[in-house]
C-alpha cells in the first residue's frame, strides 16, 4: 500500500495545499492511487524533487499530491545497448552514478537534483542540447498511468523504432496534464574522454557563434551570458581529441579567444524574480541582447534564451518579446501570473485542448498547470 | 459520390490536378510495397496548402476518406489508397522555399526530394542528415510521415530529430503550424504518425554541417559471429560511428552478382564502419576501430570518395540485388537490442534451415535494425506462404528479444496485425486518443497503423484483469 498522509505546508504547489499526499512505491501502487482518484473524481498533481514545481500555472485544485520519489528503481541498464530504463522518481544525479562505471551518460543537462519524471514533464534541457537535443530526442520509450489508472506504454527499449505513435514526445513537456509518467527508457551516450571550454568575449558575439556553427569542429554547446553592454560566449568541446579541437577553435575565433574553465554560470538559469524562456533564431542574437535592461543567458547555438526580469518590468517586456518571438514565462510571483499570461499565444491551443479532453476528460490531472488553463 | 466530389474539386484546383480516368488512376494503386494494391477513387495533385485544405474539407463534408502520398516509396503500404476515397499526391509541391544557413535550416514543400535538399546546400558545406536508401526519389513529406532513418541515423538521429516545424492541414481541413512553441509537442507526435494525423504542406528542416573528414572501413570476417563481436567491441569502446552496416554471405553473393562490388571472397560477413567528424577525433577513433576489427581476415580503407562509394555500392544495392539470386523476396524490417544480434541471427539461421526458406541478412548493426530478405520462388506453389511464415516468425523473434516490429519502414497496412504482439489493447487505445483528438471522423488515412480503429467518444477501457474504478 502506498504511503498516504494529509497535506501540510511543505507540500504546497504554488501556494495550493493538497488535501492528501500519496507516495507510491511501485508502478502498480501509483496506478491504484490514480484509479482511486478517478473513482472519487479527485484532482491529482504529480511532483518529483520539486526543482521546477514553481514552473507552470497554479493548480486549480489539488486533492492528491502524487509524490513520485519512491518510484526510484533503475529497472535495467543495458550497457551494451546504450539504453537505460528507470522509474520516474530516480534523480538524475543517481542515474549518472549508475551509468558512470560503464562510461555512459544520459546527455541531459537538467539540474542533477531533478528527477527523471520532472525533467521529462518540463522538457528541460541545458547547454548540450545543441549536440544531443532535448528530452524528447533522448527518450525512446515511456510508461504512464492514465487519468483512469490504466498503465500504458509507447515506444520501447530499442533506439530505432517506429511502431505506433510516439506518445513519449507528447508527454514530454506536458506538465503532468496527460498522465503520470512512471517509467522511461533513454538512449545513452559514451562519456567523452576529454572536455575543453573555449571562451571569447567582445562586442560581436554573433560573429563568434556563427563562426563556431559554420565550422566543422562540432561543439557540444555554444552558450552565452551577457546583456546589451557585453557578453561572454563559451563553447564546449567533448571527445577523444577535444583539446585539439578547442585549440583549433581558438585560432578560428581570434581576438581574446582562449581555452578556459567551465564558467560559474554554465547551465544555470539567470536569477531574477521572473524567468522568461525565449526562442529565437541563432542569427537574431543581437536583437535578443538589445531587448534592454535584462540579463540574457542561454544556448546561442540553438536560439534558446533565458531572461531574468524584475517583476515590475516583466509585463511590458513580455508583450514586447511576444510581438516577435515565442516567450514563455517559466516562473513568476503568483500575483503576476494572470497579467503575464505565462505561456503566451499558441497557434495550436485548440488542438492542445482537444488532446487534453481525450486523455483526461475530467480535467483532473494537474488542472491549470499548462497553457490556456489546461 | 466521388463523381460529385471530382466536379467540386475541379472548381477549386486546376482542372488537370484532378484525376478520375481509370487508366491513369492505376498508376497510384500501390506504394513501394506492391503486394497491397487498391485503385484510388480519385487522385488530386494540389499545388498549395490552401488547395490541400480545400480537398480535405470537401472530403470531410462528404465523409470520404483520403490518403496522402509523396513519391510512393514507402515499404509498409502507408500510402495505399482507398477505392472509396481520395489520394492526395504532393508531387507538385516541390519548391525549396528558403535556405537559411546562419540558422542552419531550410523550408521546403512536402514533395521535395530528400537528396535535393542536400544538393541545394552542398556548395555551402551543409547537408540534410536523414538519408534513407531511397533518398534519390523519396519525398520530405513522406519522410515526415514515416520518421525515416537511414544508414547514418545511428549517430545523427531520425527525421523527428531534424524537423523543426511542420505546416500541416489538419484532418478537419485547417492549416496549422506545429513547432516548438508552447502547448503539447504535437510536432513530435505528428512526425512518424504515418499520415494519420494530417497532411504536411511545409517543412522546416535542420541543416547539418558537413563533417571535416569521413573514414570508411570495409572489414571481412569469416563468420557473422566474429563480425558481431567486432560491433560490440566498437560500441563498448565508447565510439559512435556514423554508420555500422553488416551483410552476411548470401547478401554479399547477391550484391556481387548484381553490381560486382568486389568484396573480399569467401567472407562469412562484411562490416562497413564509417566514422565522420573533426579530423583529430576521427583519426584517433579510426585507429581504434581498425584495432578492434583484428579478427577480420581483410580490411580495406576507402582512399577517397570514389572508393567509399564503391564500398557502399554493395550495401546500397543489396535489396534489389537479391533479385539476382531469387525470383522473389520479402524485405523485412525489425529491431532487436544490439546485444541480442548474435542470438537472433542464430535463431533466424535455424528458422531458415528448418523451413528450407533462404534468408539473406543485411542490417544496420549499430542500432540492431535488421533487414532480413526472405527469398522465395513465386512460381512454386506455397512458397510465398512459407516465406511469409518465416518473415512473420522473424518479427516474433524481434518482439521476444525486446525489440520492435519496425525500425524505419513503418506499420502501414502491412504490420497493423502485429501491433497487438508489441502493445496491449490499452496501449493502442491510448495512442488512438491522439487520433480521436485530431481526426474524430477517422477519415485521414484510415486502416493504417492500428489493427482495430477506436470509435472516438468511446469510454477508455480499463486494462483487462484490473478492477474497475467503481470498486473503490
Describe this structure in words.
The complex is a heterodimer of chains A (374) and B (472). Helix content of chain A is 26%, strand content 27%. With 374 residues, chain A is α+β, with helices and mostly antiparallel strands. Chain A has three domains: 3-68, 2-Layer Sandwich (Uridine Diphospho-n-acetylenolpyruvylglucosamine Reductase, domain 2), CATH 3.30.43.10; 74-190, Uridine Diphospho-n-acetylenolpyruvylglucosamine Reductase, domain 3 (2-Layer Sandwich), CATH 3.30.465.10; 194-337, no CATH class. Chain B has three domains: 2-89, Uridine Diphospho-n-acetylenolpyruvylglucosamine Reductase, domain 2 (2-Layer Sandwich); 96-209, Uridine Diphospho-n-acetylenolpyruvylglucosamine Reductase, domain 3; 213-400, Vanillyl-alcohol Oxidase, Chain A, domain 3 (3-Layer(aba) Sandwich), CATH 3.40.462.10. In chain B, the strands form four sheets. In chain B, strands 12, 13, 14, 15, 16, 17, 18 and 19 form an eight-stranded antiparallel beta sheet that branches. A five-stranded antiparallel beta sheet of chain B has the order 5-6-10-8-9. Chain B has a four-stranded mixed beta sheet with strand order 1-2-4-3. With 472 residues, chain B is an alpha+beta fold. Classes of the chains: A alpha+beta (374), B alpha+beta (472). Chains A and B meet through helix 1, strand 9, helix 6, strand 11 and helix 7 of A and strand 9, helix 7, helix 8, helix 10 and helix 16 of B.
Short description:
In chain A, 26% of the residues lie in helices and 27% in strands.
| Percentage beta strand of chain B | 15-25%
**Number of structural units classed as domains of chain B:** 3
CATH homolog superfamily of the largest domain in chain B: FAD-linked oxidases, C-terminal domain
Oligomer type: heterodimer
**Proportion of helical residues of chain B:** 25-40%
Helical percentage of chain A? 25-40%
Main beta sheet of chain B: 8 strands, antiparallel
Stated plainly, the CATH topology of the largest domain in chain B is called: Vanillyl-alcohol Oxidase, Chain A, domain 3
Amount of beta strand of chain A: 25-35%
Task: Report the end-to-end length of chain A measured between terminal Cα atoms.
Answer: 31 Å
